[in-house]
Design goal:
The complex is a heterodimer of chains A (about 110) and B (about 110). Chain A has about 110 residues and is mainly β. In chain A, about 0% of the residues lie in helices and about 55% in strands. The chains are: A mainly beta (about 110), B mainly beta (about 110).
Chain lengths: ~110, ~110
């Protein structure tokens, strides 16, 4: 079974703090993704990566950065957290190519005070 | 930006009822995926439809891809409390990324 794990299920941070969200997958998938999920907006793509050390901006990259130093690990970084970044963050991975299933982690619910 | 609109946004029904969820876009997708998400978990893939007009069945769930590959529907027959969850459609664009719909939250009461 594919397993995608995220470092924390719940996080509470203060405005201005630097926040790291970690995601690890165990299936040697090439592609990894970070989404945020907000009620009524579905999932919105923040950043994605097709390979180690590669990163591409998604639809809402402002205020975020990512790191992929190893194939199995994809980190999302909030350089200076703001209250409008309070959200559910979901990581996913998949094989490269079309019609492949995206496998999601359980999510990290982040509250920025 | 491509958009996928789902309707209805919320659905609350009794066990045994039938329901249909719609997923509409003005864009053409190479494939359309449906996911279900339960509280505290990430979305899990239910089905992928690829060909215009394609119909796939998964027990009591029937998925259809529109002829023009711009829209899709999910029909559940005789809903059960175990069907409760958030249903998300997602269209695959020409760079194999997914564009997710706005979601339909289904509650089935016993």
């Amino acid at each position: 079974d594919v397993k995608v794990t995220q470092s924390s299920r719940y996080l509470v941070k203060r405005t201005g703090e630097k926040v790291f969200l970690e995601c690890v997958q165990d299936m040697d998938h090439e592609n990894m993704f970070w989404y945020r999920q907000d009620p009524g907006l579905g999932l919105r793509l923040i950043y994605f990566s097709y390979d180690v050390k590669m990163k591409e901006k998604g639809d809402i990259p402002e205020g975020y950065s990512v790191s992929r130093e190893k194939k199995e690990r994809f980190s999302l970084i909030l350089e200076s957290a703001s209250t409008n970044q309070t959200s559910m963050y979901l990581c996913a991975s998949k094989w490269g190519g079309y019609q492949e299933t995206q496998y999601f982690g359980p999510g990290t619910r982040l509250l920025v005070l | 930006t491509q958009l996928l609109e789902q309707s209805p946004q919320f659905l609350s029904i009794q066990e045994g009822e039938n329901l249909t969820v719609y997923c509409n876009s003005s864009s053409v997708f190479s494939s359309l995926q449906w996911y279900r998400q339960e509280p505290g978990e990430g979305p899990v893939l239910l089905v992928t439809v690829v060909t215009g007009g394609e119909v796939k069945k998964l027990k009591r769930l029937t998925f259809q891809f529109g002829d023009a590959r711009k829209d899709s529907s999910l029909h559940i027959t005789a809903a059960q409390p175990g069907d409760t969850g958030l249903y998300l459609c997602a269209g695959e664009d020409n760079t194999d990324k997914l564009i997710f719909g706005t979601g339909t939250r289904l509650q089935v009461f016993p």
